[in-house]
Amino acid sequence: MGQKLYVGNLPFTVTDQDLGDAFTRFGTVNSAKVIMDRDSGRSKGFGFVEMSSDAEAQAAIEGMNGQSLGGRNVTVNEARPMEPRSGGGGRGGGDRQNRW
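Below the sequence we write its predicted structure tokens.
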């Protein structure tokens, strides 16, 4: 099991500090990051927390998943690698040829 956790269903008001503070009771938090929309600067409603050990990460999953944080029940699980996006660049997909 990895030490990096995905935290979903975050309220838009939660900061990196709030997120990290919520997980400190389960062990040492190496980092906590709320993902922000680059255009609006507003939270996307999810983030990542990195715990210092697998045991602490597992305790955090068991202790925080489904619990209220800022008035919303959060989802906590092991972070998975980001899946590659399908290509195309915004013109309807990359598997067909554009003819002008």
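The domain at 4-78 is CATH 3.30.70.330 (Alpha-Beta Plaits).
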